[in-house]
Amino acid sequence: MLISKLILKNWRNFKHIEVDLRERVFVIGPNAAGKSNLLDAFRFLRDVARPEGGGLQRAVKDRGGLTKLRSLLARRDPEVAITVELSERIDEPPIWRYVLGFKSEGKGLQRVIVSREKAENLQRKIAPLDRPDDKDRADTERLTETGLEQVNANKDFREIAQFFSSLTYLHLIPQLLKHSELGGAAPIGGDPFGQSFLERIAKTTERTRDARLRKIEAALRTCVPNMRDLKFDRDKATGTPHLLALYEHWRPDAGWQREDQFSDGTLRLLGIMWSLLEGDSLLLLEEPELSLNESIVRQIPPLLWEMQRKAKHRRQVFVTTHSEALLRHSSIEPRDVVRLKPTSNGTIVDSPTKDELALVQAGYTVAEVIASKVHPDNVEQLSIF
Length: 385
What we know:
Layout: E1 2-11, E2 14-20, E3 24-28, H1 35-49, H2 56-61, H3 66-69, E4 80-87, E5 96-104, E6 112-121, E7 126-131, H4 134-138, H5 158-165, E8 168-170, H6 174-178, H7 197-203, H8 206-220, E9 227-234, E10 241-247, E11 256-258, H9 264-278, E12 283-286, H10 294-297, H11 300-310, E13 317-320, E14 337-341, E15 348-349, H12 354-361, H13 366-369
Helix pairs in contact: 1-5, 8-9
């Protein structure tokens, strides 16, 4: 399934937005516009639906409590709400609509309670979940949990719960792979920074692992032309998993390097490509252009398409970026881009104007027409420091 529409109400710096989504989504905007906050709405649903260690209370607590989540503009209506529509294919009518609204209990322990929750099958025109219901009114303790997180409650819409819980978020930090001691004893839940990246590769069956590494090597050689023979290995003494690659130079077979010798950019590309091949759920990528040469950044959009094509199941990919180079590829359309604009009434989605659409139609790139409008004002004043 794919998420075809997102509606946020009082979520962080969004008082209200409604946006249609594509198979590839590039989220752009100035610093502090809410790019990461928009992706976090999907991560929040994942954390609520997660079968182990998940749930509404934990998801809110992990984000600093309701006061950190609720928009400062939510003065009269304190409810925070997330609505998503799910389709089998983009540009097809949605199959499911899921709505989750929550707010403070307002007394006693100040717990977070479900104010409304609905899972609606739009094709069959039925709602297997519509809360609060009579059971909730008879026992208000039930409202401290969502139906999404309860196996005995989500039987008739479990595919929604499974979809959310399988979401992948990646903001791989190469230093945590090169120097595992920097990451502490255990990875953060969901492994957002790629601390367990090598373990994920190690747990994959040998046949699947080798097939994926061959596909990744073929794609990587366009960016790292002197690298070949990418393979998995284990340290014979410690059992620690590693990646190895041969870097060609004047001494034949003398350039074997381990992942801690790879460049930061190579490791980030490896993480992105492995994640694209790893599953079929929504993939969230934060600023994939970091540590990469601009000429390589320009190839990220076609690389995403190529890896999606090689994957067993095509998956939806959302990317936050500050890079105009990434948006220069001719395959990116205006409707692939979500441009965020801070205002005095919260961040809004700044839709392309007719003139902007006409310019793209005339041959200008999205970077030239749409991304150029998110530059911060008065940035030259930084030079006075």
